[in-house]
Amino acid sequence: MANTMEEFEALLNESFEIDTPAEGSVVKGKVIAIEAGQAIIDVGYKMEGRVDIKEFANPGEEAELAVGDTVEVFLRQVENARGEAVISREMARREEAWDRLEKAYADEERVDGAIFGRVKGGFTVDLGGAVAFLPGSQVDVRPVRDAGPLMGLKQPFQILKMDRRRGNIVVSRRAILEESRAEQRAEVIGNLTEGQEVDGVVKNITEYGAFVDLGGVDGLLHVTDMAWRRVNHPSEILAIGETIKVQVIKINKETHRISLGMKQLQEDPWDAVESRFGIGTVHQGRVTNITDYGAFVELEAGVEGLVHVSEMSWTKKNVHPGKIVSTSQEVEVMVLEIDSAKRRVSLGLKQTQRNPWEVFAEQFPEGTEVEGEVKNITEFGLFIGLEGDIDGMVHLSDLTWEGRGEDVIGDFRKGDMVRAKVAEVDVEKERISLSIKALDGDPFAEAVGGVKRGSIITVEVTKIEDGGIEVDYEGAKSFIRRSDLSRDRAEQRPERFGVGDKVDVRVTNIDSKTRKLGLSIKAREIAEEKEAVEQYGSSDSGASLGDILGAALKGDE
């Protein structure tokens, strides 16, 4: 009998355990009624509870619930003051959701959810019972200004982090977008080949080029590949949203970068450069760019040449090219050299104008008088500005006949207008020598015009010195040394002459460089003696020199 009692007790206890579910667990129940937005659920053993219908809704959807449905709910309390069970679908779903999410996290699978609220630094996402955090940076590939259109939509997310104990879940929408974009890119890139011609839409324009959408993948069209001619900014040629034809130049399989070109679809103007622009030919061009070393000139669309700074001007040396030409200016240039391999044309600007030194030499031959402004004064002379924007130089030695150039250069000032004679024009060296002293004629040359070596001339004594006497001939000064005053040693005394004396002398030398006459009384006496001997007898006829000279003097009288 006792046996039966024990069995009965055991059965009773078992039925109690089965019949009364423990608080804090998930139980099954049946929907017996729906009223005022709530579902009344029978969880067995005469226990009923109420749950808001919206707790049954999936994220981003309406709740689908009907009388008679079996549902799982969380039993929080067996009985409250109203004698009802306190049940929650929310909590049942949370437990359910965590189990499901942990499995998805472990398998690296996507989960569905809906963004339903905004919090600091991001958004809240309902993952079908569990609430996750979506950081602002993980919403989209590019920063999102307005997340309104994304709210409440059912969409996939990737779980980045989970901590059940703390109830933390962090998710990303961006990871999924990137993945699908990568797949899309790979597919588009797989269909492209280098050299292929495709249509694309200009999506973005930068300083260095434009990004072109080729249907889910962007390619870069560099500014240098837009046209054969120089393009300063891509916006000159393209506009955002425009559809253009491009050629795929290069596809980098690793980085998936695509380089595009537009000019490759047009004819290369360089193919005809050598035939169109022969060396030595002159063409009209437009200045496109100016640098320190020269100016670029466009001869035709896509063909540019460089005028090096040394080929810009005959006269302006060491000047920045920007002082000679300006951007967009039309200029005449000569083709000097073509290098098709390097796609370079060397041009000359000065070659289209005549060499100003040649022009000057024609207009102002040597000996012509010119006038100009003193541009510069240096230790070796004056620089004078002349016609044709060129300079001539008056050397110190060409400033004056009298005295030293060093002494008179101080009389000149920058900006003075001076006259001078052209002494020499060297076209090769681009040098013009001028002379100021030549204007007055050469007093020395005028004085000694008819005088030759060996002539006997009459001079006037102007000064007596220990070493000899200074004399003047028609304004040309000379000095007769002591040893030349007489053939007789005893007579070689300067003091036997007086200032103002007239003396006959023989010319021994004419030096137009040092502008000096070499004169000698001794040489005159020797020449006279020689002449007398020749005329009046031979020196060996026994007649003495005194007799001959006496006879000669008598004959003179």
TrEMBL record:
Residues 24-90, 108-174, 195-263, 280-350, 367-437, 454-522 form the S1 motif domain. Pfam families: S1. The keyword Transferase does not apply. It comes from the Bacteria. One of its GO terms (molecular function) is structural constituent of ribosome. Keywords: Repeat, Ribonucleoprotein, Ribosomal protein, RNA-binding. Signal peptide: none annotated. GO terms for biological process: translation. GO terms for cellular component: cytosolic small ribosomal subunit. SMART domains: S1. Belongs to the bacterial ribosomal protein bS1 family. Binds mRNA; thus facilitating recognition of the initiation point. It is needed to translate mRNA with a short Shine-Dalgarno (SD) purine-rich sequence. This is 30S ribosomal protein S1. It comes from Yoonia sediminilitoris.
